[in-house]
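Here is the promised in-class demo. Please do not try to memorize the tokens; focus on the logic of going from shape to residues.
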């Protein structure tokens, strides 16, 4: 008997539209001969199953079931394709754990930790992993621009602490640009992370649990036309993504070792994408994405293809790992 798989997408953040695209790609690449799939839109004003005719069927939040044409549908597993809140930060996963519903992501605490850039950096630093110098601000704090520059220098990056897809990020090149950058970041989050500029190539490393073992996918070097890998670079073609990355074997081995170490020490499962900057061939860890983009323009699908793994194999693996957990 085929398992019922709910593909959750959307969410409550600025990344909702991107998540809907990721969810659609997941749906298109899961075999309907193997699984019954249901597209579930998790939005602020409604949780609904949406069928091919765009008819909506409400989700019963008591047990995450739905009723379609008089039949109650329950799910065996949830495929999490929500970028941002409440999927990537673990909120909805805690709910699934409470009702005993399996899902393709890491446990909710690990998701919450990795979604918080500041907390993630604080943990990995204890294991000797190199990171950029950083400065933290919460909404309402007194802001001293001179102190910020003294700590991280110029130029620097101003980021929302809990956000993805480069929303709210700015590269401040002068003292005068710091306050506007902070104001922009506060639109997305009440916590701000300010980091020193690291001069070097950016390498994206996909790591996942594949057939019961940790697997590092072929790495991607990101060459952007813009100042940094911002929203335009990620989604509007303003970057070149070179897979496999044009790096030495020695640097590749360093990155593979560190990316695997981070995956293990943070107790992650499912698939992830970690970002690094190479400074004189030494990897500096930036962040980890635990619900990476899965659109046709996204990096993980590119890396999987280079590894000889089809999207169907990638997504079926995630479901089987969750069902067997």
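The designed amino acids, position by position:
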């Amino acid at each position: 008997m085929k398992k019922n798989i709910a593909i959750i997408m959307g969410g409550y953040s600025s990344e909702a539209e991107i998540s809907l695209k990721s969810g659609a790609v997941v749906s298109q690449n899961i075999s309907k001969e193997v699984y019954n799939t249901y597209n579930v839109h998790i939005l602020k004003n409604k949780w609904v199953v949406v069928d091919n005719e765009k008819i909506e069927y409400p989700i019963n939040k008591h047990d995450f079931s739905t009723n379609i044409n008089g039949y109650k549908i329950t799910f065996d597993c949830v495929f999490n394709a929500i970028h941002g809140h409440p999927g990537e930060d673990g909120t909805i996963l805690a709910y699934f754990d409470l009702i005993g519903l399996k899902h393709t992501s890491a446990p909710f605490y690990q998701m919450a930790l990795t979604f918080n850039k500041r907390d993630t950096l604080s943990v990995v630093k204890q294991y000797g992993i190199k990171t950029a110098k950083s400065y933290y601000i919460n909404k309402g704090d007194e802001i001293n621009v001179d102190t910020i520059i003294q700590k991280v220098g110029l130029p620097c990056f101003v980021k929302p602490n809990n956000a993805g897809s480069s929303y709210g990020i700015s590269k401040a090149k002068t003292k005068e640009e710091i306050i506007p950058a902070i104001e922009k970041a506060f639109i997305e989050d009440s916590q701000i992370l300010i980091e020193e500029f690291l001069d070097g190539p950016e390498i994206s490393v996909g790591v996942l649990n594949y057939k019961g073992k940790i697997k590092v996918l072929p790495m991607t070097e990101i060459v952007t036309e813009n100042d940094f890998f911002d929203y335009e670079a990620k989604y509007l073609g303003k970057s070149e993504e070179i897979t496999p990355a044009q790096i030495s074997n020695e640097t590749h081995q360093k990155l593979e070792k560190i990316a695997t170490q981070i995956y293990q020490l943070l107790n992650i499962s499912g698939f992830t994408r970690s970002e690094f900057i190479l400074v004189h061939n030494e990897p500096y860890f930036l962040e980890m994405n635990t619900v990476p983009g899965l659109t046709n323009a996204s990096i993980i699908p590119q890396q999987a293809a280079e590894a000889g793994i089809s999207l169907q194999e990638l997504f079926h693996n995630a479901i089987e790992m969750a069902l067997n957990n």
